[in-house]
Each structure stands twice: as structure tokens, then as C-alpha cells.
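call fold target=Karyopherin
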Amino acid sequence: DPQEYIHRNMELWDENYTPDLAALSLLTSAVHKRGKLTRGPTLEFITNSLNSNVGDFSNINIKNAVEVESSLRMFSAIIDILTSKNSPYFGQLKDFLKTMVFPFFKSPFGFLRTRVCEICSKLGYIDLNDTELMSTIFDGVIACFNEEGDCVPVNLLAALALQAFIQHEYFQEHLSNIVVPTMQKLLALSNEFEMDTLSGVMQEFVEQFAEQLQPFGVDLMNSLVQQFLKLAIDLHEVSNIDPNNFLTAEDVPDETEKQMAAIGILSTTISILLSFENSTDIVKNLEQSFYPAAEFILKNDMEDFYHECCEFFENSTFLMRSISPIAWKILELIGECNRKEESMVPLYLEDFMLLLNNFLVYGKDELKKNEFYCKILFAIYEKSAAKDDTDLDELKINFELSQKLTLALEQQLPAMIREKFLSDAIGSIIVEREGLKKNVVFGVTAFNVIISNMIVDASTVLSALKGKNCLEIFFEVWITSYIPNYIRTYDIKLTVLALLNLLCRTSAEELHAYNLGNFVEQICPLIMKLMAKYPVALKLLDEKRKEFSSDFNDGQDWDNHFNFDDNDDEGEGDNLEEVLEMLRSGGSGDMKFVDGLNDKEYFDDLDEDPLAGSILDEVNIYDIVKGSLLSLEQSDFAKFSTTVSNLSNDEKDVYTQIMNV
């Protein structure tokens, strides 16, 4: 039965650990752990079994076919060792594959064709360097993939084999001519059988053959959305079943497969979207196609898919550098979702921030004109801030939203909302005052709420800090602990803008009223220190951007993963005895336990996404520093002289460079 075969052999989370799986696991462990003693005899057994059961490859009976399948299954289980370049068996691998494995591509038994495809799915990372062999693999896999009839397992394993070889030049060249019908076949398989691995295959095809698939992008998106909705409707119906209707917990339907398949489909839609980064019109059409999926997710509170839903529109808005009418409708749906009494939006705010950030970056002009959309964002913040037992990570996310709202709306942020943002941030700082230098991520993010408001309305900020007896704490930690250690461009820009506002737009009388008169002397030196660090921070961000944009390659040498030293089995028993003896003696001797729970955070723990837009991206900090200081020199020369006279020689050099830009 094809369905039974798939459940039995392809679902790794199947809890039914049968005798054959146990035997296979034992064999694999033996060959890995005691290779010197077991590799040769195991291969000899496999070869003898195949030779004794195969006469004519196209004419073997069912009994022999089952024996052959078992032998190939054993071979597949240990293939990772055999294909390592330092393996003594690597040189014989090609001949073995040609003579004992690949002929079964044409076997009349589907389970043998399936097993050959499964073996091929493990060969993709090997440099076979043999055009004839690659041709055999390609022709065999494609033939299995395109089989019609009751042969879903053959099709599925062939799809995985295609995925394994998709990076090979030979496969790319030959697949490029048939990529559209291949993708259509994958869609049909995905519709017939719910399996997340198929979504992964489709995603790789989209990434590898984006140019060839672009003319069919919208149709492909529509098909994937329909497949997702089919799964999502089933999942939603199951979630609404009263568990009390079942006799035991085992009777409750396990929908893990459908959920994983649905997530895989959503990931594929994101890959399709990203392949159209240079076509704004098509991105808009893809948004329209994806909207029914997003609408179903948000209207039915399907929190398992919030991340992918938000990631899709995060990418679409980033690609267009604007907010489309469809995206604004998504914000409305998020608002409706948030207004529900049992809303999960506050618990998943980190996922929603992927998208909310772009509304504030690319939609800030519309937000300043549209109070309706602003109220949605305020309500999201207020509901999240009202949660009980909020930890530091959750507070950090709340404060990211409030500071970005402050920067986006500037003077148009309502006074009551500004007071709420400041009150929440200052209150948390006071509660966590002893840990501000240790909990850097929380501390800097909470401080940034105050700093962002200082850029817009320094008087309100200073009043709020003094009103809660937090003025001294804030400036002490900010000046001595945070400013000297900033490494993100965002923190540097934000702080420079706030310092400039304190220096140039806050009167000396007001600063004296808050006992900050002497602080004026420090402001310009602090700005120059930050500006000296800014090019380095910018370079680090650019390097991250290049790293994320390039193909990932961790440089791990898989071929040397296994050590085939002749002494690989020696000494293991002695080591085990030594460990056991130390355990018996209570860990005395040289055994030492190290406390690895170092919870101190560092400034490089602060995230700065190199591929995401920032509200401060358009800020030319050099022009603003230069213009602000020139203006101060003309309007208040005494204050200007006071702060500039304290520059060190290095700081004077930075100052001169900025003024000569």
C-alpha cells in the first residue's frame, strides 16, 4: 500500500519503533562505532546477498526482490561512511552503484525503484565526476518522478533525489528545460499527499530556477495558497473539536503532518516572492494572491502561522519600499485580531514586529495622516504592555515598538501616548536598576525609548525622568556604560540625534534646572567619540549585509567527518572504564565541572538586521551634526565654545573632518 509505505518509511517522527528499525539502528551504530570490525563484513554480506538474489535484473521474483530491497536498505543506512573520501571503499563506490544499484531504476517492483531513488537522495553532496554516471542518475530519477499510476512513494523519493542533485551543473542544465512541468508535478504531488519535505523541494526549485519560473509566479502562488487553505481549513476544524469527545488522548487526531506541510507551503510562497525582487508590479500581484491565506490565518487566530504570514508581508513591503493597499488591509486584520479578548497577538508580538517595523519605516507618512492606523498600533502596544508576568525579553519587544512609533510619528505622537511610553520604560528601568549593566539588551532597548523621545521632546523626557527620580540613574548609566560601548549604527545615530537636541534646542536654564549644566561641556566630546566609531559600525553592518546576501557556506569538510584510522576502535573501552571509575568516585581526580551559565550580555548581543529597513536609514548623520553645530555657533556662541573647548586632539580631528564634509 503506497500510503502505508510512506508512513512506514518516510515519516521520521513516527513513534512506532518496529523490529526492523531497531535492527537497522543497531547495524548503523555498530558500523559507526566499531567500523574496523564491522565495515568489511557488512559490505561483504550486502554484496553476497545481492549477487545471490539477482540473476536477470528485469526478471526476479518477489521473494528475491524483497531480499534485494533489504540489502539496499542496509547499504543506504551506512552510505554516509562509505562515501567519505578517506574511506577505503570510496574508489569502489561507482562500480558498485553502476552494477548493483542503478539497474533497479527499471525494476518492475515499485519498492525497488523507490529504494534506488532514496539512495540517490544521499549522493548529492558527493563529487562523482562522471558524466555517464550523472546521466544514468538523472534519467533514472526523472523517469521515476514522472511515473503515473499508483506509485506515489516512487514519485516522492525521486523528488527528494532531484533536490539532492539540484546544485549539480548537469542537473541544472537538464532541469532548466523541464522546470515548469516538474514544478507542476511537485504541486500535484503536494496536493495529493501532505508532506513538508515536498514543500522543501519546491522551495529549492523556486530558488534555483527563479528566472525560468517567473512567468508562472502568480499562477504558482495561487496554487500554493489553495493548497495551504485546504490544509488550514482542516487544521482549524480539528482545533475546534471538543477534546472531551474522545475516550483517550490517543484518540485525538495528530495533525503534525498537515501543520508541517502547511508551514512548508508558506515558506515556498516567500521564496517565490523573493525571486521577484526587481519587479514591483509582480510583487503587488503576489500580495493579492497571498491575501486569502493571510486573511484566513488572522481571522481564525492560527498562531502557528503568524510568523510566516508576517514574514511574507515584511518581504513584500521591503521589496517595494512602500505599503500597498493590501498590506494596509493586513494591518487592519491584525488590529481586529488584537481586539479579541483572548488575542494571541501580544504573545507573538516578536513575529508581528517583522511587519510592524516596515509599516513604521515605509508607511510613516501615511501614519501621520491616518489616525485609524495609528490607533491599531497603539492598541497593540497597550495590550502587550498590559500583560502580567512580562519578562525582560517581552519588555524589550514592547520597547522596540514604542521607540519606533516615537521616531515615525515624531511631534504627531499624542501626548498621552508619549507619556505612556516614557512611564513604562522608566518604570522598568527603576525596577531593573541593579541589572542595567548586565542585561545590556533590555537596558539599551529601554533607554532607547527615552532617547528617541528626547530627540522629539527633550523637556517632557527630562520632566518624566525627574518626576520618577530616575534622572541620575539614566544619565550615569547612559554616559558611563552605554555610550562608550555602542557598536550598532542605530544606537550611534539615535544617541547623536538626542545629544544634539539637548545641546542645540534645550536652553541652558532648563538644563541647569535639572542639574545638567555641567553636562553641556561633555556633549560635543561625546558626539565626536560616537562619530569616530560610526564608520566602523557602518562597515560592520555592510559586511553583515554582504554575508547574508552571499551563498551560505560554513566551510565544514564533510568528507573528513569520519576517521578511518586503523586504530579507530582501540582505546575506547579504556576511556569508558576511566569515566566510569571517576563517576564511581564521585568525580574526584581531574574531572572538573565548569559553570557554563554566564548570563551577562554584551553589546554585540544587540541585533541589527542587515537586510531590514530602519527608521533612521535616511538620516545623514554627518550633515545633521555639521548643520546643528554651525547653527549653534551662530545662535549661542557661548554654549558652542563651552562644549567645543573640551574636545581632545583626536576629537578635534573628527570635528574638523565633519565640518569639512
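return ok
Residues 1-175 form one domain. Residues 520-549 form the longest helix (30 residues).
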